[in-house]
Write a structure and sequence with these properties.
4 helices; alpha/beta; 105 residues; Glutaredoxin; 5-stranded mixed β-sheet
């Protein structure tokens, strides 16, 4: 299951993580987010122990969304060593996300 990331736990779970991270910025009212959500859940199971896979609800966590300049959702950030190394805006296939995650491992 994807980790629920918040303004208060983001730094600990993503920025300071020893593993690369995939972070899905989403909202309950966003149609494309509902398409990407199940893919993120699958990836969290497949990459368990290899990468941090989490979700940020932008409505409940505006601070972290603002920090990363999230203007459109879904936006998926790929973070390694505390730095954003890749970004995907909009709904895409699971294969695209897996390729980007694999590139960080």
């Amino acid at each position: 299951m994807a980790l629920e990331l918040t303004d208060s736990n983001f730094e600990e779970n993503v920025i300071n993580a020893e593993k690369p991270a995939l972070v899905d910025f989403w909202a309950t009212w966003c149609g494309p987010c509902r398409m990407v959500g199940p893919l993120v859940e699958e990836l969290s199971n497949e990459y368990d122990g290899k990468a941090v896979v989490g979700k940020v609800d932008v409505d409940n966590n505006p601070e972290i969304a603002q920090k990363y300049g999230i203007r459109n959702i879904p936006t998926l950030l790929f973070i390694k060593n505390g730095e954003v190394v890749d970004k995907q805006v909009g709904a895409v296939s699971k294969d695209v996300l897996a390729q980007k995650l694999d590139a960080m491992l």
